[in-house]
Amino acid sequence: MWSLLIPVLITTAAECYRIGVGRADVTGPPVEIAFMGYAAMKQRGTGIHLRQFSRAVVVEEAGSRLVLASIECGMMSHGVRIEVLRRLGQKYGNLYNEDNVMLSGTHTHSAPGGYLMSMLFDLNTLGFVPETFTALVSGIALSIQRAHEDLGEGRISVSHGELLGANINRSPTAYRQNPEAERARYAYDVDKTMVQLRFERPDGKVMGAFTWFAVHPVSMNNTNTLISSDNIGVAALLLEESMNTGYLPGKGPFVGAFVSSNLGDVSPNLAGPRCLASGLPCDVTTSSCGDRDDVCVAQGPGKDMFQSTRIIGERIYNKALELVRAGQQGRRYLTSGLRVVHQYQDMPNYKALYWDPARAEEIPVQGCPPAMGYSFAAGTTDGPGMFPFSQSVVTANPLWNTVRNLIYGPSESQKSCHYPKPIMLTTGEMSFPFEWQPSVVSTQLALVGDVALACVPGEFTTMAGRRLRDALRQTLHFASNKNVLITGLCNTYADYITTPEEYQVQRYEGASTIYGPYTLPLYLDIYRKLAQSILTPEYRLARNEPPLDLFNDLLTLTTPVIFDFAGLSSHFGQVLLEPPDTVVPGQTVLVRFVGANPRN
Question: Catalytic residues (predicted)?
């Protein structure tokens, strides 16, 4: 019956959509605040490389609406989303709500943290940072407001292209744990397909493009202290510059967003990992070096992180621009139809059936309370951790267990549930001073014509994402899984999602899969049910309880700017060194003036 219902949703003219796009600045405090991504407390802001933006599109059809915003931040948090919805509600009532607003973080690792409202994720910023939170909320809400005000008749088209030379798999040994027959279906161990939704007016004027490509924005490494939207941000700025002739960065009518996808094990550092001191290759399994003082770090294609960011960004931009400018034969227009569904899920208590290939039978599985494994402390080849851990650790260390138990040791049931993960932090059993990692997550699915947008609350690895695409393609009766767009780090952040096979070897991604070995099968069941509810109106989704409201429990240990002084003989804004009257292209201009603390 479902296959008969799909055409009913998508039979009318393509111009029946009303579409609006908008953009706004979300740049957080540029100094003194730690960045979110590498979890390195020493990585505190000292300035700005590239500003952060939120780019939004509103799609309306027959009374249904979808908001999709791609935000240049580490990831989205439930608290930010709820406050954005509250502000939109003050202006538009219930027009934009939990069901139809989809907020996705690009996953740059060079932007201020302190807004996720989970104890573990806000540790390196010493708790909640109101300045980061306010900048994100205000900018996201403004980008959606601008998209709302831009609403008008339009068309949506989808196009695809293959991009090589922009991403590699940073955990190939884990990827190779997946069944050989499954891996044989794919030419690469990362997704090389770029997918783009282009928005245009009935007269053909292109108003925006949202582009999905799987890569971590970590060309800027963990020594960087300048706010940066990284390689994805470079691609967005270049695309908008090409389409908005004569406008300054962040301005102009065309909005070009890049949306995170199944990037969990995907790196832009094409030169791969090497031991920093010796220059020798790292151990392929553990990503460690023979000398304990040496560090295994992956390098980008450039001479430094700034050049690598530019190179990867330009490659992504060039393919995206090619898709934007592709003619009629290079794209397919979506016919009408718009449905969006949303549901909160309590992951530790969620149950599903899973076909276990090792047993060759279907078994009941359930989520675990959140926990982080030893290899989480090792970090990744894109950003090594602060402690002497290596990846692929599946046996516990008595010394570190003693240290762990002084903080909070895992229960026997927790150890059993997460096996073979040796638990470093049993975050789901820790509640002081408040929740350490989320147990309840947001799950959401949109169907625009015959393209599905799966808003997922974390970082799916390459194969985990492929399995989700397959599951939704089958449930929605799509001809191709290219019609399923995984929209990552969306609405909630609940770390990584590996396949059960990848989980067994406990690379960083497996150690950070917080609901246990069956996390992915649980999500596959959840998104199948979301798809069923889209196809079958009588299939009612339960209104589950949302995450805890933690606003009153938050800690803020970062001090505000106590005192700022221009000097006895100066005033703020005073120019100390004037720029020259004339300059030529390429010339470096030096000016000096009296500035205040940028956090003021």
Answer: 267
Average pLDDT over residues 268-274: 93
Which value, to the nearest 10 degrees, does the dihedral of the CA atoms of residues 184, 185, 191, 196 take?
Answer: 170
Max CA distance (Å), the chain: 80
Q: Look-up: residue for tokens 């638990």? A: 423
Residue 180 sits at φ, ψ, to 5 deg, of -60, -40
Neighbours of 349 (CB within 10 A): 11
8: confidence class by pLDDT, cuts 50, 70, 90: very low
SS3 88: helix
List the end-to-end C-alpha distance of the chain, in Å, as a whole number. Answer: 60
pLDDT at 538: 80
Which H helix or E strand runs over 306?
helix 305-324
According to DSSP, the β-strands at 332-333 and 152-162 are antiparallel
Binding residues, as ranges, are 107, 216, 459, 496
Question: Could you tell me the CA-to-CA distances from 333 to 155, 156, 159, 197, 481 in Å, in that order?
Answer: 7, 6, 9, 9, 17
For residue 420, whether the previous peptide bond is cis, meaning omega lies within 30 degrees of 0, is yes
Cβ atoms of 324 and 209 within 8 Å: the answer is yes
**Residues with catalytic function:** 267
**In angstroms, what is the C-alpha Rg of the chain?**
24
Euclidean distance between CA atoms 67 and 22, whole angstroms: 11
For residue 592, what are the contacts with CB-CB under 8 A and spacing of at least 6?
A: 575, 576, 577
Name residue, tokens 């008595």: 398
Contacts for 191-194: CB closer than 8 Å, 24+ residues apart? 191/167, 191/261, 191/262, 191/266, 191/462, 191/465, 191/466, 192/162, 192/163, 192/164, 192/167, 193/160, 193/161, 193/162, 193/163, 193/482, 194/160, 194/161, 194/162, 194/163, 194/316, 194/319, 194/320, 194/323
Q: Which of 230, 195, 385 is nearest to 306 (CA)?
A: 230
From CA 459, how far away is CA 216, in angstroms rounded? 10
Which positions make up the binding site for Zn(2+)?
A: 107, 216, 459, 496
Return the percentage of the chain with pLDDT > 70, whole number.
93
Q: What is this structure's pTM?
A: 0.93
What is the Cβ-side half-sphere exposure of residue 213, based on CA atoms within 13 angstroms?
37
Q: How far apart are the C-alpha atoms of 504 and 520, rounded to whole Å?
A: 13
What does the alpha-carbon distance between residue 106 and residue 250 come to, in Å, rounded to a whole number? 16
Evaluated on CA atoms 447, 452, 453, 457, the torsion sign reads positive
Tokens representing residue 418 in the block:
């997460």
3-state helix, strand, coil in the chain (%, to 5): 30, 25, 45
Q: Which residues contact 384 (CB under 8 A, 6 or more apart)?
A: 222, 295, 296, 297, 378
Specify whether the CB–CB gap between 124 and 113 falls below 8 A.
yes
Return the half-sphere exposure (C-beta side, CA atoms, 13 A cut-off) of residue 185: 11
3-class SS of residue 377:
helix
Crossing angle (nearest 10°) for helices 462-476 and 519-535: 30
Extended beta strands in 429-569, E state: 440-448, 451-455, 459-460, 484-487, 496-497
Encoded tokens for 301: 């294609």
The band of 395, judged by pLDDT with boundaries at 50, 70 and 90, is: low
